[in-house]
Structure of Transposase:
Amino acid sequence: MAYIEGHARDQALLLPPSVEDYVAADNPVRFIDAFVDDLDLGAAGFQRARPKATGRPGYDPADMLKLYLYGYLNRLRSSRRLAAEAGRNLELIWLLRGVRPDFRTIADFRRDNRGAFKAVFRAFVLLCRKLDLFGRELLAVDGTRLKAVNSRARNFSRERLARYLAATDARLERYLAELDQIDRGEDGAGTGRGEALAVKIARLREQRQASAALLGQLQASGEGQISLTDPDARLMVAHSKVTVGYNAQVAVDAKHSLIVEQHVTNACNDMGLLTPTAGAAMEVLGVERIDAVADMGYHSGDDIVACEAAGITPYIPRPHRGTATGNGLFPKERFRYDPVADAYHCPGGQVLDTRYASVTRGHLSVQYSSPAACAGCQIKARCTKGRWRRINRGEHEAVIERMAERLAKRPGILTIRKSTVEHPFGSIKQWMNQGAFLMRGLEKVRAEFSLTALAYNMRRAITLIGVLGLIRAVQA
Ligand code: SF4
């Protein structure tokens, strides 16, 4: 059977007469064009939003922004690849009207305007709000670790440096002793070995000096770790994977899994990040109150209290922290607090009403126990390894208990959280292949992630209402 054949390369063809004919009415580039043309780039913070009256004309920031939006939407993020595509990709030739900036100009644009991309992301979120694509009732907040331009070998913690210095000192001592032996002629090895050792010692001393300087730098800054290629990146652990990277936080609306707010930080965990992320999302959505669900990594008394004060109703499962759970003993949830008696009822049916108050890192907590009851308890082996069990009650415990009651009445909300946040993170890392940053420094990776989140939202909105619907909304 024959194959479908192409035409001969020297055959004269009647191609469509204009580039316009190559771009269908519902091609996403038409939306990018309309969306960027509608933006106030000066207000967003883009440089040269107004052309200079004199001098050599520069590239229009609107064209450069269109190029980046197209690139992030189509897995093209490097300036070299964008420059190459601008010259051979018909959609881009249409979008930029034949303008072909070189890769340096493209890279400089992203770097120089790094503070402005968040405003473009926000403008698209406001467009989605206008189109009623947000439910504005429930946010799923989550964070993901994205790799930085920094290998693990070029990240040093104080502990790692201290270990390295101790090991280097031991090696130096060994080499010096060996060198002494050779000098005294006790060792049978010739001068060749002595020379090799001298080189090794000199190299080790150099490395030791560099490591000691890094440790000194860490001690002076108060930081716990230092990254040499990207100084802002941090060693982070997530789901047993260790990465030198950044923590990208998103607040996703549960109605259509669209990202309402995003922010990149180098905080190594998510504690304390619920209120700022959900609070900023509330502002964009224009609501006074909202529910927010997050995983147990966000469980922090201070943050839960701050959420409630900001009009956010948090839903966070309680993590099983503490030695009791680790040792297979009764978890704290098995102990019921009685506010009238100000005491705990334990699984053995006893009342723990001996109280001891203390302040740790500025937070008051009260320890409840009953040594007498524990002394004669039949199930003590399942409760404590000590002489009696103690239950700590922090100053925010009432708020945390209220949240646990809310969560017990609405268990399905945790499944909604998972499916809502997995959509953007799965798409960004797998489909869009954007699980690692290309730039260095917190400000620059924030710009990158604004473009990534914007591209995700655009793709999602196109699926929901189509290119023509979006264009009509921009032009309305
Ligand atoms: S050991 Fe003490 S706290 Fe635990 S169940 Fe027995 S009496 Fe209650």
Notes: The chain has four domains: 19-113, 135-148+234-318+407-447, 154-227, 323-404.
